[in-house]
Amino acid sequence: MPLKLNSFNLGAFPASLSMKAVAKPAPERILRAAFREFERRGFAGTRVESIARRARVIKQLLYYYFGNKQKLYEQVASTIHKEREVSIHDAPDVLADNLEYWLKQPASDPDYLRFLMWERLEVTRSNIPGEMSRLHFWQESLRQAVADQGKGLWPRMGPDASQTLLSRLGLVMFPLAFPHWVKLMAKQDTTDPEFLAQRAEHLRVVAELLTASGARKR
Prior knowledge:
Elements: H1 19-22, H2 26-45, H3 48-55, H4 59-66, H5 69-83, H6 86-90, H7 95-107, H8 110-122, H9 131-150, H10 161-177, H11 179-186, H12 193-217
């Protein structure tokens, strides 16, 4: 049975766990601690001893629950993606609102974004951690994209719906994944509410253009 965490947005999660946190079940504490270590240092830079210390458990207990660091990493990856599946169904139908919604998701969860960036550096295409459970997440995203196109909520941008989904992700994720480029080009910080408001307005304009283009083709 997959381990469920109440929330994986750990931006305010303290480096030193409180007594209340210590009272949580050991597997949950280990998962939380592992996520924090992996998003800060990547898989290669994270030591099992550091995870155990942060979780306030002995190292042997980590091995007892998860086997080894690789399996623990896979469980973390699977868990955080599974928890985000609900966001697919909560997304608004209207294109402009949809893009703004997907902008706010990663913008409000920078720890998750850092986890993905480390993963991009370390993971090969033939070895994706938790691949099967994560494949379900993206298959559901793709099904939703196809359904949106069928209802006229998204313009058809070619025969392959996966390309449309990739374009949607690129529009919202690129600036957040490359904040230094935003700093150089726009002289803004991606965590600044003013930047996010401007980006949301720009996405609204893009949505209007795409919607108008789709209407003309129909």
